[in-house]
């Protein structure tokens, strides 16, 4: 009998500190109108703690929704491009803090596509019988890697985490079809030059963040269009069979385009970019959580998702939700509020980078 990877738990973590467009305008040459009309973003969250801490909160909420204990997990997969450190991985910190002793644990970096990539491979692991209960997380602390002097990219991103529990099931559910790919010829249009080639001895406080918006948009449209067509062809479904669209939250214009392409009306398109900005790998699971909480996702619904990210990675999936949309246990754990405002957290980063650029200009 064919095995499916049913989504039985869902959870999110959103830092309490909010950075509004008006806050950004206090130190950048921008305005609320400039940002909203170009991106749809009104505010974003800024975390005072590392990626793994947010991932753990999201994971605990997902476990609560599924009614599982952490020791029942046999695989923990974390999608992120902003790990706390290079070694060890974020997934091992999640495993430790959840109290799990035996699960396999690893990170996956496909940038903004990481969560869908994670669902894709976790689903295959369950279908082959290699794993039975899998925790998939998307978590990012992007505010720590941005160049806050660059308006074009600084206004786009925020912090957060989301998670899902996948369990082996005989009932048709979960990720029914998915297609993931990478347009590597354009890998440099979205990149952060900070890795093993990085000269830590010559570091002057600037981490060059390359972001060529128009080229990213063009290739994202093409890549997601192809991926969506592939999953429709694989399942034999059409746009008439789709109950809702839950896409990567990168840009309101791109989401509108994708909704038009999938023939999904506005009321069935999940959009929360206005509240959180682009949280990279976390956008998809956070959006799913909110869609379930708000009653947009109903028992047995068929959902289409599409993503793109640095690499340029890309993908799409068709998900059939199970019969449960109510968490078994309370799944509303949050991070403690440190009392720091978003500006308290961001202004030192802005001032340090600005000083580094000025010093470089003087040399």
Overall number of domains: 1
What percent of residues are in strands?
A: 15-25%
Largest sheet: 5 strands, mixed
Task: For the record, give the distance between the C-alpha atoms at the N and C termini, rounded to a whole number.
Answer: 68 Å
Biggest sheet: strands side by side, in what order?
1-7-6-4-5
Radius of gyration: 20 Å
Judging by the overall fold, what is the CATH architecture? Answer: 3-Layer(aba) Sandwich
As a percent range, the share of helical residues equals: 25-40%
Q: From the helix content, strand content and strand pairing, which structural class follows?
A: alpha/beta
Give, in order, the helices and strands: EEHHEHEHEHEHEEEEHEHHHEEH
Helical segment count: 11
Could you give me the name of the CATH homologous superfamily?
Answer: Thiolase/Chalcone synthase
CATH topology category name: Peroxisomal Thiolase, Chain A, domain 1
Mean pLDDT: 93
State the shape.
globular
* Uncertain ranges: none
Per DSSP E runs of 2 or more residues, the count of β-strands stands at: 13
CATH class: Alpha Beta
Protein name: Beta-ketoacyl-[acyl-carrier-protein] synthase III
Subcellular location: Cytoplasm
Pathway: Lipid metabolism; fatty acid biosynthesis
Subunit structure: Homodimer.
